[in-house]
């Protein structure tokens, strides 16, 4: 559509350049079309169409096997009214996110600053990054062994402190915390790399100027270094928050959502609605609620960033 | 401008054509097979397989069909067992199902409208009656069986000897079981490995007081009084660590794993694990029927078989193929491969021979174990399940573990399982 004004301004009799440019521009348009075409078709078929389809499905009772029937907003009413698990899943997801994101960022940031001054910076980065690139399922299985009764954690609690450990994953009070602990261990490596890169890129002249002005220690960290790496922090918190709202594998492998529904998360609720209850309409409704929540939180973050993220101009 | 429009049109046409192509693909597959010009029919066969060995066995069966009927070929499609039913229901949902569908008795209820009743088409002669009964729902034979499984108590012979206990044998009672479990609990080891898996748990509850989670017309009744009594008894085993409580709701195979690892001295497990349990445990393994409660020793039986999808475009060929796949020769072949306890009575003794040949040092134990299967089958009851059984088993895991740890009461947990399961049953 952008071609119309270009062509219409090239009125005849206005001199050579527009006339001569025409074929070239057309060729460019063609190649632009050619380059963009496949991804536009791909995006349309595999992203936009399923997204639109999910909206439609959320308004239907859509069994995996059988005929769909129109329900209007009943799926949403069910999720917020009668479903005994959805509200709990929502609460669990917020608790998980509320604990996981700050812990992840604090651990990653702390270690990134510490590593930066270490002689073996590269080695540490590789070591801390390993959990992030190891398959999540393998990590979760190992943590299950650590956390189970008579497992490693129980053994050390007993032998070092004389405390008899709870059954971490079967006790409703500790199950979600265990999932958070495992997730932080698994996930902070990625942010650590992001922060490390940002710390390395801090302009030395600014740091020197701060030092000459007498800024040291916490003051330097809080007023100079943090603002300098704030774009990286914004990126890290936004991405971490989005992925944490979508948490699935860790609770699925560690606790299967139990005991009771104490570790059931939103995505797990969607998965169960779709593949265990075989109610695709209900699953689509849950997925849309999750999408709306993530969209809202991300929008708030983008609005909020103006107050604390400093970009170099 | 005109060119651009033409280009857009062309692109649109390509997109429509692509859409049409995919739609056509769906239609062609919905027949579950294809027919060549010379009249040869190729039937798709959906089956689970976890290894290349298993695939090779299934390919051999497919070849047996073609050897018997040169005009019929079988195209095997496999998925690992854990993904199989997700794949299968997705295929049915999109009209891509195979003509020949492999089915587990526990999942049958979800597929009653999608499988063709076999009726007169496939004779049921020569099968153990329990095996055909498990795949017969509402008077309709929806699949023909190839194996048969019951639940048994596996026990650590060495531990029984050390504790000076008599080994369990057919006719032993719930009281004997409890006494043994308590006496075997020493030195941080438990007498019994607990479970919340459907067959493992529900079979023992059934034997305890005839508690049944599902009515005869396949409706959930988890909150029924007998179930509450039975779960109260079962959860009571967790007291004083007599029963080893699963570490989390994700530990579906806890009891049997703890048993093989030597951490629990008894566990309920399926007859399909006889060979692997005896060979992988570092102690002598004994096997007995479930302990008898008020109505004698009972167990649920479960099995797998093959059915024909309703949409299959080549049903006659599918019936012929089915008779070969579940026929005596195929049963003999699978038994010789040690696949599982066969559904055909004639081949059942060969399974014992196979296991004994595999593990000659334990010949006596293996032989006695297979006799226990035969004994348990005579009182075996098929476990018919609701359409949403996956959801029910998920909730059993989540809520029963709370009862075992004392965080919830049997009545509350069973009410939760019932209430959540009733919606989609």
TrEMBL record, chain A:
Gene3D superfamilies: MetI-like (1.10.3720.10). The chain crosses the membrane at residues 30-60, 94-114, 126-147, 153-169, 176-199, 228-248, 280-303. Keywords: Cell membrane, Membrane, Sugar transport, Transmembrane, Transmembrane helix, Transport. It is found in: Cell membrane. Residues 1-25 are annotated as: Disordered. GO terms for cellular component: plasma membrane. InterPro entries: ABC_transporter_permease, MetI-like, MetI-like_sf. GO terms for biological process: transmembrane transport. Its main location: membrane. It is a multi-pass membrane protein. Residues 90-301 form the ABC transmembrane type-1 domain. Belongs to the binding-protein-dependent transport system permease family. PANTHER family: ABC TRANSPORTER PERMEASE PROTEIN, INNER MEMBRANE ABC TRANSPORTER PERMEASE PROTEIN YCJO. This is Multiple sugar transport system permease protein. It comes from Phytomonospora endophytica.
UniProtKB/TrEMBL annotation, chain B:
It is found in: Cell envelope. Transmembrane segments: none annotated. Pfam families: SBP_bac_1. InterPro entries: Bact_solute-bd_prot1, SBP. SUPFAM superfamilies: Periplasmic binding protein-like II (SSF53850). It comes from the Bacteria. Residues 1-22 form the signal peptide. One of its GO terms (cellular component) is cell envelope. Gene3D superfamilies: Periplasmic binding protein-like II. Keywords: Signal, Sugar transport, Transport. Belongs to the bacterial solute-binding protein 1 family. This is Multiple sugar transport system substrate-binding protein.
């Amino acid at each position: 559509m952008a071609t119309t004004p270009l062509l219409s301004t090239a009125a005849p009799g206005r001199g050579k350049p527009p006339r001569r440019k025409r074929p070239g521009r057309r060729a460019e348009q063609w190649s632009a079309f050619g380059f963009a075409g496949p991804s536009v078709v791909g995006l349309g078929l595999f992203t936009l169409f399923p997204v639109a389809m999910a909206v439609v499905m959320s308004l239907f009772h859509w069994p995996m096997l059988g005929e769909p029937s129109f329900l209007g907003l009943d799926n949403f009413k069910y999720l917020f009214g009668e479903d005994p698990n959805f509200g709990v899943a929502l609460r669990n997801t917020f608790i998980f996110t509320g604990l996981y994101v700050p812990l992840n960022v604090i651990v990653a940031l702390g270690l990134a600053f510490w590593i930066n001054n270490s002689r073996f910076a590269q080695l540490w980065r590789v070591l801390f990054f390993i959990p992030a690139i190891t398959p999540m399922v393998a990590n979760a299985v190992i943590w299950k062994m650590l956390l189970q009764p008579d497992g490693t954690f129980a053994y050390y609690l007993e032998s070092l402190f004389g405390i008899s450990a709870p059954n971490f994953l079967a006790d409703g009070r500790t199950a979600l915390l265990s999932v958070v602990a495992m997730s932080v261990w698994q996930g902070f490596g990625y942010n650590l790399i992001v922060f490390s890169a940002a710390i390395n890129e801090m302009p030395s002249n600014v740091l020197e100027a701060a030092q000459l002005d007498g800024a040291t220690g916490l003051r330097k960290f809080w007023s100079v270094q943090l603002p300098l790496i704030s774009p990286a922090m914004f990126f890290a918190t936004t991405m971490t928050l989005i992925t944490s709202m979508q948490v699935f594998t860790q609770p699925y492998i560690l606790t299967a959502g139990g005991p009771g529904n104490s570790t059931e998360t939103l995505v797990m609720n969607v998965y169960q609605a779709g593949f265990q209850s075989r109610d695709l309409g209900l699953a689509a409704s849950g997925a849309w609620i999750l999408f709306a929540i993530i969209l809202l939180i991300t929008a708030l973050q983008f609005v909020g960033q103006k107050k604390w993220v400093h970009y170099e101009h | 401008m005109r060119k651009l429009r033409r280009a857009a049109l062309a692109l649109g046409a390509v997109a429509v054509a692509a859409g049409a192509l995919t739609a056509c693909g769906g239609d062609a597959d919905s027949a579950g097979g294809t027919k060549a010009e010379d009249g040869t029919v190729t039937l798709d066969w959906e089956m689970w397989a976890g290894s290349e060995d298993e695939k090779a066995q299934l390919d051999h069966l497919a070849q047996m069909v073609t050897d018997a009927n040169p005009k019929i070929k079988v195209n095997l499609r496999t998925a690992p067992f854990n993904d199989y039913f997700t794949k299968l229901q997705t295929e049915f949902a999109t009209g891509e199902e195979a003509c020949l569908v492999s089915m587990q008795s526990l999942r049958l209820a979800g597929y009653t409208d999608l499988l063709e009743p076999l009726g007169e088409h496939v004779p049921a002669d020569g099968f153990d009656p329990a095996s055909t009964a498990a795949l017969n729902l509402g008077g309709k034979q929806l699949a023909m069986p190839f194996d048969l499984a019951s639940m048994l108590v596996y026990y650590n012979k060495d531990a029984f000897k050390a504790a000076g206990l008599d080994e369990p044998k057919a006719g032993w009672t719930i009281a004997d079981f409890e006494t043994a479990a308590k006496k075997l609990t020493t030195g941080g080891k438990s007498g019994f490995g607990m479970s919340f898996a459907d067959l493992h748990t529900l079979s023992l509850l059934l034997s305890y007081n005839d508690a049944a989670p599902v009515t005869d017309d396949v409706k959930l009744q988890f909150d029924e009084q007998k179930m509450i009594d039975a779960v109260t008894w079962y959860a009571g085993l967790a007291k004083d660590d007599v029963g080893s409580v699963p570490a989390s709701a994700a530990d579906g195979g806890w009891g049997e794993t703890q048993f093989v690892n030597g951490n629990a001295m008894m566990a309920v497990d399926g007859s399909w694990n006889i060979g692997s349990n005896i060979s992988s445990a570092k102690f002598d393994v004994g096997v007995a029927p479930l302990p008898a409660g008020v109505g004698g020793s009972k167990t649920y039986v479960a099995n797998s078989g093959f059915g024909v999808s309703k949409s299959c475009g080549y049903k006659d060929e599918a019936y012929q193929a089915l008779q070969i796949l579940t026929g005596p020769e195929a049963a003999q072949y699978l038994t010789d491969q040690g696949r599982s306890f066969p559904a055909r009575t004639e081949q059942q003794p060969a399974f014992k021979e196979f296991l004994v040949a595999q593990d000659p040092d334990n010949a006596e134990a293996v032989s006695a174990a297979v006799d226990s299967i035969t004994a348990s089958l005579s009182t075996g009851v098929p476990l018919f399940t609701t359409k949403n059984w996956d959801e029910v088993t998920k909730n059993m895991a989540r809520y029963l573990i709370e009862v075992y740890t004392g965080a919830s009461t049997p009545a509350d947990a069973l009410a939760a399982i019932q209430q959540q399961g009733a919606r989609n049953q």
